[in-house]
Amino acid sequence: MITSLAHIAEPVTTVAPDIFGDVGVSLYHYLFVSATLFALGVIGFLTRRNMIVMFLCTEMMFQAAGLALIAFSKYHLNHSGEVFVIFVLTIAAAEAALALALVVLLFRRRETLNAEDWALLRG
Amino acid sequence: MLDGLTSLMPITTLAADAAASYTGSKDALASGAGSGLMVLVPLLAILGAIASALMLCFKVRTKLPAWGVVGTIAVAFVITLVGFLNWNGDGAHIAHAFEWINASWGSGGAGETFTANFSFYMDGLSWLWMLFVTGLGALIALYASEYMAGDKGYARFFGAFGLFVFSMACLVMGDNLVLLYLGWEGVGLCSYLLIGYFYTKPEAVAAAKKAFIVNRIGDVGLALGIFLIYITFGTVEYAELFPLISDGHAVNVAGDPISGWVTWAIPCLLMLGAFGKSAQFPLYVWLPDAMEGPTPVSALIHAATMVTAGVYLIARCFPLFTLSDGSMIALQVVGYVGMVTALLAATIGMAQFDIKRIMAYSTVSQLGYMFAGLGVLTTTGAAFHVFTHAFFKATLFLACGAVMHGFAGQLDLRKLSGLWSQPGWRIVTIAMFIGCLNLAGVPFTAGYFSKDMILAEAFITPWGQLIGWVLLFTAGLTAYYTFRVFFRVFVGPAQYEPGDEHHAEDHDHSHFHPHPPGWAINAVLAILAVACLVAAATYFVKPDEGKGWVGGLLSDSSAAYVSPHGHHGDDHPDDHGAEHALRIGDAEVIPASHPGHDGEDGHSHDDDHAEKDERAMKAGTFLGMDPHKVMYYVSALFGLVGILAAAFLHGPKGPAGLFIGNRTEAAHSRADKLLPMLGPIPTWAQNKWYVDEFYNMVIRVPLLVVSHIFHLIDKTLVDGAVTVAGSLPKTLAKAIRPTQSGVLQGYAGGMAVGLVLLLFVVWIVVIRAGGVG
Amino acid sequence: MGPPTLHELFNPVLFYVLLTLGAVGVALASPRKGVSPQIIGGLVVGAAFGGVLVLLGIRGNEAGDLPNLYFYVFALIAILSGLRVITHPKPVYAAIYFILTILSSSAMYLLMQAEFMAFALIIIYAGAILITYLFVIMLATQAPSEEKVASLEGYDSTAREPLTATLAGFALLAVLTGMMAHGMSDLQDSRQVIRPSVHSLEAPILGVLPNKVIREFEQAAVFDHGIAEPTVEEVNDGFDANLRTMAFKIEDRERFDHGLETDTRFRSMLPETIHGDTVLVTLPAERGITNAEGVGFTLIAKHPMALEIAGIILLMAMLGAVVLARKQIELGEDEKAAQLRTLGQGFDDDVAHVGGGM
Which CATH architecture has domain A27-110? Predict the structure, then answer.
């Protein structure tokens, strides 16, 4: 026996769109911010001479990649992108640990953080 | 023509023998029981060599290697002797050792196979050579066991010695030209090793290199000759090759007739090989220098055996030399070259003071006789001369070696005198005397008979008159320089001056005492002296053939295609003799003097012997007389004149100088006063007519100049190109090196720019391909 | 809706003009010796990127949706703090500004309903990595001496070839954004707004987690109203992960009817039809897989190998950092001898090198 329940089921009301709502922002918006952060990271890496700040800039590029990954993850409706941000964080942490240890060693040697003082590969 | 065919009979039977022997059955061995044993000869020799090599490795310091080699070679000689005595003189047998090269292609038919086995072709020629190779080898090894005693390289010497006998056996007994070539190169190698035996002496090393390089020229000729023979005939096996040739005409294995340039090219190439190995003009220059080796080596290799390999080659391949439709251009060249060599070497030998060197030039000269003999169509004479020469020249060399050994390397005939009068030198002197008699051609010695045979044939052969006269003159010169040595060194006042080679016991020069030869040297010299006399006796074996024992041996071999066309040959009752004479008849060697009778114009070949006899007689005379009859006296006359000249110029006072000499001291003789009358000629002769200098100027100097030019080209052009090629990237690198600043940001900037460019290109491609936007 | 073009998204001429303006601003903001127009540069950059964002927002508005203001605010904060990271002469401040960038990034993660990653980012980056940076910055700074007052190092206060670097960076940005705009057209429904609560994201995960489904229904108080609790097998067979519905047997009809009448939430979960004694219940929208659960499930189920490798990398990095940063101790001869004596006779000289070798 089938009884219609239409009369007792209330329609699900959606949240009315407002300017703080969750609509109107496309994948492209997030990718643009990601690309901008990446470009800023590149510029920073090229312009700064302090090794620590240079590493900071690489971290910013990682950050840009993470943003793009999350955006794609949400766009494709799966969690793989988020999972890869975890891996990006892992690599960033490992890199920070090793690179900063190296920076400390280098600083001990020459008492400077200027990357241009380490130019042993000069042709 | 019929007779020509019958002449093939022995060859065809031996081919059948060969077939039987290849199966390795007992029948084949039974048919040639002696031949089958000959497989052991090279085996023994190589075993002796290997044993010596092992002793060398284990640094054996005793005389063990000598006894090993003497023993094996002596056993080899006994085997050869037994085999020879069992050989019944019925042509060739083939003893098969093992299969070596046996290739076929295509259908494997005529001309599509190549077979060269380790098989030994035993006929009269091989037996003759093997007898004196092993016999002299054993004797000289025995001599060397004493002569070389105390030398550091004792085992090395005997290793090379054994290897030499092995190679010589392969050369002489091989049943195909490839095996002959193996032996040919093998003896060349041993020669090189033994000439350079005293490798710390620069002269010895230079002489070894000279011998090797000069021999290369000849060996190239031989190799090309063998190639050409295979290409032309389709086989290199004697048993197949020689039946293809008859009457101066040849067919290949497929039956097609052979004519054209190959008929003279093959003998000329083989001849070149023979000239190199047997030291003929112009390739003779290596042999005198080869005397830097130990004396036993000079005696065995550079006098008795190896240098006769060229004679053997021509004798063995004699049918090929009769190919060229009767003109026999190669044989004429052989004859004239032999003549020039004989005269030239004799004149040089007359002016030398080093007795070993005199013997070396004498060897070259006598080899010239042998080649002249071949050139005037008497293989018997040449082979007989090889045989006798082997004995008397070995005797002479070993006697010289004994002198050298006893006087600390002294070989200058101006510094030695009167050995006869010195204690312990009697046997040496007697052996030397017998050897000198032989070499000088004194009547009833072996050298006398063999030389006569060649001289007589020379006057009979149409192109041989000049050769004959020159050889006769040379015989006189030979007698002179031979007895010059004898008169100066072995008789007269007893004087000596030691050489500069110090033996272990002679520390002090002032206390030098010559040490006379021991039992081994004396015994060998005695045996050889007797052997010289025995060799003379072989002339009287089978006298009805007029060519002696050697001629009998050769009549069944491939060298027998030309028989002496004198009376003896024609009197021969059996088919062989008749057909040999006939071959001369229609091989058109006569036409020069008989224009009306030549050719194959239906001359009945069966007509009576008298006519042929007459034609043969008319072929050549010695001043109108039969050379065979008068040559005995004429050559004896020339020899005696030479000996008297030697006695007059160099002989000591008294009976030893035949009462015409007046020498009273070692250094000076009448020649010192008389020779300057000849002007500069003796000096020129002493300097070997400046042949070495001529070669130096004509060959070596231009080569040096050319090589310097090429060196310059290499330095400037080739090296310059390489330098430019190297400096180009270097310059480029210098230009772009500043981009490698070493600063991290520089590389990162490069990466960023590269990424931009890459992405831009990809973007453009996406737009173009997708047409989006 | 056909594939949108670059022109549909924004006006390219205006976009590139604004990017060029941004480039000028970055170049101006770069640290220099002497008078440095950093503030002007920062304003220019803010204006340029704000303009770009407004441009993007206007286009989004034209498409019929209102812009998400939070996104634009946090995007601008991220960009401007990022600019400060690369332009601030003092490394410590740069690091602090980087924390700001991270915070605004994590805010954007939150906007995308990636709350686990948002908080993980704050904890790991801001909490751990950046603190390490700060420590290292302090470690690697020369102690101020008496004659030398603590001041900026020369290499910090001057940018290295700012024009070239800015040109390269903005060329990269232009190419990237241009490519992205083209790439949009190849994507299905590229205008799709990134929405939260899209259940299809959870469907594949819920479909393989029956116990989770039972627990979610239980938490939604479904079983309080006379409906029998299903077994795992029943859930495996009966649960429709895409529609988030499940047919339940009605155990107690009275309680069920009672629940329908009294509990509006319960009533809202029921579809229109009831088939005899079975009823089709829909899982409420707020129940289901959370973001953290989804990430954890994907991490373990789909990328176990990468997870293992990440673990190994972290371990190696730890070891490497320990080895690299260890202080080298130089032992004198006396100390070596003393150490040898304590170690006893059985050891050879190598023992001493172990202590002082590195």
Answer: Orthogonal Bundle (1.10)
